[in-house]
Amino acid sequence: MQHFSTLSSYLEYLELPGPEHPMLSVFTATSDGFLPCPKESSPPITNDCYTISFKKIVKGNLNYGRTKYDFTNGALFFIGPRQVLQWDDAVVFEQMGFSINFHEDFLKGTDLAHQIRKYGFFSYSTNEALHLSPKEERQMELIVENIHLEYQNNHDSFSKEIIISHLSTLLKYAERFYERQFMNRAELSSTLLEQFHQLLIDYFESGRLEKEGIPSIQDIASNLNVSQRYLSDSLKRETGKTTIEHLHSYLIDEAKNMLLSPTKTVAEVAYELGFENPPYFSRLFKKKEGVSPTEYRDRYRMN
Known about the structure:
Jelly Rolls; Arc Repressor Mutant, subunit A; five-stranded mixed sheet; four-stranded antiparallel sheet; transcription regulation; Homeodomain-like_sf; transcription
């Protein structure tokens, strides 16, 4: 898989104009209303850059990680360094909007270098992109206009600080708007939770838990056609618990039923639930229930 370690080499590969800054490029719609068009197709590639892009008119599917996304209705999406990108000539890049690309080293020595790691939407798949209302869209465009203006000015000792400040503001607004999107899509989040629980039930009843071990969060998310971070964020907003907390709760609930069997040892229960290390299972059980598996079994027998 081809990897691009510099912004210039990445843009050159895309057949886009070179950046005016070695670590930052800003594209906004030209007088004809469209952004510059990248090359028609590409096999899987990666790079060391962040991308923030708003596409208003695009036809076709773009592969981002394992996911296909139809951009026809437009969306704001975020791509982090070393994410896998792929597209073919069925994608029509007749897009309006904006696109900001910056190398991860552009943030070095700034507070945003640490803050950007908390923004989970850089790990979302594109089918989890941010859909803006007209008012929200205009707010984002105003910020990008300021970034673009500073980008085109003669660079001085204040330029980077000002651009970083605008980028930070843009990301804070994105976090706010994603929060709104999660709230407005509560029904979808609830459905995702139901699908998550059903997947665990099917996995357990098929016997795969004992044979293959506890499923990874990555595998669970992949089966639900969402990214790990989006699944965890969605469940967290819906229930207050992360994906791993839901998984552990399910396993402990199953363990509580299995511990009632007088013929099973604690170690056997642990192995049947996919735990390779029974002591770890016992520690997790005590953390969740306040008592050890043995104490739980003895308490139940006493009652």
